[in-house]
UniProtKB/TrEMBL annotation:
Residues 26-92, 110-176, 197-265, 282-352, 369-439, 456-524 form the S1 motif domain. Belongs to the bacterial ribosomal protein bS1 family. InterPro entries: NA-bd_OB-fold (IPR012340), Ribos_protein_bS1-like (IPR050437), Ribosomal_bS1 (IPR000110), Ribosomal_protein_S1-like (IPR035104), S1_domain (IPR003029). Signal peptide: none annotated. Keywords: Repeat, Ribonucleoprotein, Ribosomal protein, RNA-binding. This is 30S ribosomal protein S1. GO terms for cellular component: ribosome.
Length: 559
């Protein structure tokens, strides 16, 4: 019994000794470098076990291996023995396990960790964090997009751990968070030393369409395009270049957002202070067209002072055209100052005022009665528009086309593009109207024919045609028609056939209408008028004398 107990105690002590001395697989053990050969380090990990590790596992990215005989190192024990009877060990895995412990502690405390970028992968880069490999997204490399990451490769620098999962072996880090934090501290320090209105120097860092970012020594300020110069600046690149050193004034500082607004023009005198004295009203100046819009053109009178020529002030004659068809960008033009509003920094200019009013010029050179010749530009329902000198038009109304035809009929003989002659009848410079007359070129036959003839006059006409409804007569070349009912006082004599072509007949004028060019005549009206005159002169029908007696007496009196 005693011997048996002794053997059991010995076995237990032996097992305990083996458990203590034999390292456990999958753990990190300490070993000693006993030799270096064939690019490998031979390491004694105790309990008569040796293993081999490639020298490259002892090197940091981009550096030579740091290992010598006699060094004590920690390695990861994969297996106690391989086919060659050696332990399978790894320095890299040992560093990884050590690194994960260290990184988890840093992640919990939100501390920075040191690492080096050593490779490029899809969407970013790989970073060695002292044994553990982390992923650095491309958006987390810098505060601005990085075009060339070459200078950053292999460089030891701090990183911030954003996310890590040991079970999956994932670590995501950021370099940008470190830069932003340091920039924020630097920005706060720089801003604390700046005051609004202060003049400082800076370097143009970036140029955009709306302005430029200027580095003031650790903090960027925005120089807006409208604050670069008093004159109009279409794009910041016109006056600035990246890398250029410029003097600027601190216009505004936002302490909460740390935004700084800068200005260059504030360091120069404001040209608007002397606008009223330099550019008095109705004075004429030469300027350069800087911008053209639908409603007009902007003209630079001097650097920093621009005025607007409204489309209505661009031309006397071109009313409904785009300003771009009258002037062009960069063109030098003469303009007149029409209005100045210094409070709103506006100058109203006129282009047409530098040229004479073409209607006034026409009135001076073409008095009423002047005969002109021009091209028919347009035909409307109320007349013709004829092109004249200096791009102005004159109008021939329907009533001024012909003496003989109605206007609606006369206008049918005209076509757009025809050359016509006309006489000037009126020029209204205020309303910009010129009235012309084609028919004024010919004599007014109607006026000549009825000259001195008035309503009630007795004239002699010649019969030119016999019709059922009456007779056609002629007086000094003017045709007129006497209806059947006006051929005689007595109904029995109202017969057209009792007249013959060529007969001379005395008639009474009943109407003279110059507008319709009609002469109204009547035989009946003449007979009634003669009867009335006879009655008044030789007696009344109430006295007992017959009408025949009265007329007979009147005829004798005439004889």
């Amino acid at each position: 019994m005693c011997a048996k107990a002794t053997m059991e105690e010995f076995e237990a002590l032996l097992n305990e000794s083996l458990e203590i001395d034999t390292p456990q697989e999958g753990s990190v053990v300490k070993g000693k470098v006993i030799a270096i050969e064939a690019g490998q380090a031979i390491i004694d990990v105790g309990y008569k076990m040796e293993g081999r590790v490639d020298l490259k596992e002892f090197a940091d990215p981009g550096e030579a291996p740091k290992i010598e005989v006699g060094d004590e190192v920690e390695v990861f024990l994969d297996r106690v023995e391989n086919v060659r009877g050696e332990a399978v060990i790894s320095r890299e895995k040992a560093r990884r396990e050590e690194a994960w412990d260290r990184l988890e502690e840093a992640y919990a405390k939100e501390d920075r960790v040191e690492g080096a970028i050593f490779g490029r992968v899809k969407g970013g880069f790989t970073v060695d964090l002292g044994g553990a490999v982390a992923f650095l997204p491309g958006s987390q490399v810098d505060v601005r997009p990085v075009r060339d990451a070459g200078p950053l490769m292999g460089l030891k620098q701090p990183f911030q751990i954003l996310k890590m999962d040991r079970r999956r072996g994932n670590i995501v880090v950021s370099r940008r968070a470190i830069l932003e934090e340091s920039r924020a501290e630097q920005r706060a320090e720089v801003i604390a030393n700046l005051t609004e209105g202060q003049e400082v120097e800076g370097v143009v860092k970036n140029i955009t369409e709306y302005g430029a970012f200027v580095d003031l020594g650790g903090v960027d300020g925005l120089l807006h395009v409208t604050d670069m110069a008093w004159r109009r600046v279409n794009h910041p690149s016109e006056i600035l270049a990246i890398g250029e050193t410029v003097k600027v004034q601190v216009v505004k500082i936002n302490k909460e957002t740390h935004r700084i607004s800068l200005g260059m023009k504030q360091l120069q005198s404001d040209p608007w202070d002397a606008v009223e004295s330099k550019f008095p009203l109705e004075s004429v100046h030469t300027g350069r067209v800087t911008n053209i819009t639908d409603y007009g053109a902007f003209v630079e009178l001097e650097p920093g002072v621009e005025g607007l020529v409204h489309v209505s002030e661009m031309s006397w004659t071109k009313k409904n055209v785009h300003p771009g068809k009258i002037v062009s960008t960069s063109q030098e033009v003469e303009v007149m100052v029409l209005e100045i509003d210094t409070a709103k920094r506006r100058v109203s200019l006129g282009l047409k005022q530098t040229m004479r009013n073409p209607w006034e010029v026409f009135a001076e050179t073409h008095p009423v009665g002047t005969i002109i010749e021009g091209e028919v530009k347009n035909i409307t329902e109320f007349g013709l528009f004829v092109g004249l000198d200096n791009d102005i038009d004159g109008m021939v109304h329907l009533s001024d086309l012909s003496w003989e035809q109605r206007g609606e009929e006369a206008i049918q003989s005209f076509r757009k593009g025809d050359m016509v002659k006309a006489a000037v009848t009126e020029v209204d410079t205020d309303k910009e109207r010129i009235s012309l007359s084609v028919k004024a070129l010919d004599a007014d036959t109607f006026s000549d024919a009825v000259d001195g003839v008035k309503r009630g006059s007795i004239i002699t006409v010649a019969v030119t045609a016999i019709e059922d409804g009456g007779i056609e007569v002629e007086y000094n070349g003017m045709k007129s028609f006497i209806r059947r009912s006006d051929l005689a006082r007595d109904r029995a004599d109202q017969r057209p056939e009792r007249f013959g072509v060529g007969d001379k007949v005395d008639v009474r004028v009943t109407a003279v209408d110059s507008k319709t060019r009609k002469l109204g005549v009547s035989i009946k009206a003449r007979e009634i008028a003669e009867e009335k005159d006879a009655v008044e002169q030789y007696g009344s029908s109430d006295s007992g004398a017959s009408l025949g007696d009265i007329l007979g007496a009147a005829l004798k009196g005439d004889n």
